[in-house]
Amino acid sequence: MEELAVLVAWRLDPPPVNTHVRTKAGPPPLARGCSVLDDEDAIWAADEMDEARRREAKAIVEAQGRVLAPFWVDKYDREASKAWDRFYRRTSVAPYKDRHYLDVNFPGAFDAPRGVALEVGCGCGSAAAPILRDHAGWRVVAIDFAASAVERLRARRLDRVEVALCDVVKDALPCDGVDVVLCLFVLSSIAPGALPGVVAKLGAALKPGGRLLFRDYGRYDAAQLRFGKGQKVGDHRYVKADGTACFYFDLDDVSELFAGFDVLSLNLDCRQEANRATKTRRRRVFVEGDFRKRRD
């Protein structure tokens, strides 16, 4: 009877819910308008890009100086694969956590009992691993133009994955007729002039009705605003100290790039991320889109 009384009491007055329980998408954010530093348990908080923030960011970008001479821009683009190869050889895998948010951010993309996903710029397999783990009937073809990234992914010995060294700009893709293409933080590293050809190639590799999932760095992200003079290689495109380049997209850029697809969703993801050690926050901006290949 005592146990029954405890159960009844629990039903009538359940214990408080922990609002920061980690899910596939991570802990839920704080409400918009709050600082991520207001709650010591929060990892991130929803943010917004208002006109005041945009004006301030534009002023910072203008103060970053002019675009480098064409010689240097061409040099960085020619040597991109070498720079990324050095990056993966030098960088620990630890910071690259698996992308557990895919099913949450792109609902239904992997609902079919079986399918094939092409991951472009696979890196260490942070997208391939959760897809293979959570969707037993799916296979992944993972490509990267950095040999060290391919080596690291192969070393993970994942089942149902084919890993190939492939430059999506220059090389033929190792597959076609795939159900899903993943472009996660990869198109920003490609020279903007090459992007229309890359997207056309990826679209040709998709089945009619297949989906292309995109997530990348957004205009006026905190990382963009940290660059100084001598690092611009184009409008909103920069080269880092290690020789790798990054472009920061806005919604219009992405809409134009994927104009040949049906748009299932396209949004700006603004958030604050906390650095508890320094008691500071970073205001991040990402662009995320879910696109479907049109049927004939």
Descriptors:
296 residues, alpha/beta, Rossmann fold, eight-stranded mixed sheet, three-stranded antiparallel sheet, 10 helices, EC 2.1.1.-, transferase
Q: What this model shows, in words?
A:
An eight-stranded mixed sheet has the order 1-10-11-6-5-2-3-4. Strands 7-8-9 form a three-stranded antiparallel sheet, covered by helices on one side. A hairpin with a 2-residue loop joins strand 7 and strand 8. By secondary structure, it is of the alpha/beta class. The longest helix is centred in the first third of the chain and has 12 residues. The protein is globular and about 45 Å long. The protein has one domain: Vaccinia Virus protein VP39 (Rossmann fold, 3-Layer(aba) Sandwich). Helix 4 packs parallel to helix 7. It is built from ten helices and eleven strands. It holds the Pfam family Methyltransf_12. This is tRNA N(3)-methylcytidine methyltransferase. One of its GO terms (biological process) is methylation.
Low-confidence stretches: 1-24
Total strand segments? 11
Report the helical percentage.
25-40%
- Radius of gyration from CA coordinates: 21 Å
Structural class: alpha/beta
Measured between the Cα atoms of the first and last residue, the distance is: 67 Å
What's a quick, concise take on this entry?
This protein has 296 residues and is of the alpha/beta class.
Topology, please?
Blueprint: H1 2-12, E1 44-46, H2 51-62, H3 70-78, H4 80-90, H5 102-105, E2 115-120, H6 128-134, E3 138-144, H7 147-155, E4 161-165, E5 178-184, H8 195-205, E6 206-217, H9 222-225, E7 232-234, E8 237-239, E9 245-247, H10 251-257, E10 262-275, E11 280-292
Parallel strand pairs: 2-3, 2-5, 3-4, 5-6
Antiparallel strand pairs: 1-10, 6-11, 7-8, 8-9, 10-11
